[in-house]
Design a protein that fits this description.
It is built from four helices and eleven strands, in the order H-H-E-E-E-E-E-E-H-H-E-E-E-E-E. It has helices at 2-21, 34-49, 119-127, 133-139, and strands at 53-64, 67-78, 81-88, 93-100, 103-107, 114-116, 150-153, 159-164, 167-175, 184-192, 195-207. A hairpin with a 4-residue loop joins strand 3 (81-88) and strand 4 (93-100). Helices cover 25% and strands 43% of the residues. The protein has 208 residues and is of the alpha+beta class. An eleven-stranded antiparallel sheet has the order 6-5-4-3-2-1-11-10-9-8-7, covered by helices on one side.
Length: 208
């Protein structure tokens, strides 16, 4: 009787293993239609190029080798000209970076106003934050900054990651389209060699 029960138990184990082996597998994730995703990007870019004057409000956090800061961000763009304001409510510090291709001015830090031909270099020298200002204006909109940039898309056709100028930009959340704007990034992160810039976008405004 004991031997019979042992055999019955063994057959039960074999039957269960066989059932697990023949269970239906989860279907693989659908492949990204890259041509369709690129067409959607081209459509978004055309819509955004029709809005040369815009502003964005949000929050930014910068970390460089484990050190950094965060605050409120207000970005105003008028064609190639820009004005970027950052304020830290906790420390009550604020600064403004303004300029256009060929020159920039940084105000609000100790030592007075600083100027230079390159906005990113000027900002880095003053704060230690390696923020690619010119490229960031396009990354904020979910667009590549150069034709050589690598773009990766999610199964929904939206941009998921791009790699450009040594930076990796990950798009973690998107806002739905409305009457003025196409689908726009809500949350993104740019990183490179120990530096990380995180952005949470609260809203966009357009001036035509």
């Amino acid at each position: 009787m004991i031997r019979a029960r042992a055999w019955a138990g063994a057959w039960l184990v074999v039957a269960l293993l066989a059932a697990c082996g023949t269970a239906p597998r989860r279907p693989p994730a659908p492949a990204v239609d890259r041509a369709q995703a690129l067409a959607l990007q081209a459509q978004r870019q055309a819509q955004l190029e029709a809005i040369p004057a815009w502003s964005m409000q949000g929050r930014i956090a910068v970390s460089v080798d484990g050190k950094g800061g965060s605050g409120r961000l207000d970005w105003q763009q008028q064609g190639p000209a820009y004005r970027i304001s950052l304020s830290a409510p906790v420390t009550r510090q604020s600064w403004q970076l303004s300029g256009e291709p060929g020159g920039a001015t940084l105000d609000g830090l100790e030592g007075g106003v600083r100027s230079g031909p390159d906005a990113a270099q000027l900002l880095y020298q003053a704060t230690g934050w390696p923020i690619p200002v010119a490229a960031m204006a396009t990354w904020l909109q979910g667009l590549p900054s150069t034709p050589e940039a690598t773009q990766e898309f999610g199964v929904d056709g939206r941009l998921r990651r791009l790699v450009a100028d040594g930076w990796t930009v990950e798009y973690q959340e998107w806002q739905p389209a409305d009457a003025v704007w196409p689908q726009m990034p809500r949350r993104l992160q740019a990183s490179r060699e120990g530096a990380r810039v995180r952005l949470m976008i609260d809203g966009w405004d357009a001036a035509r």
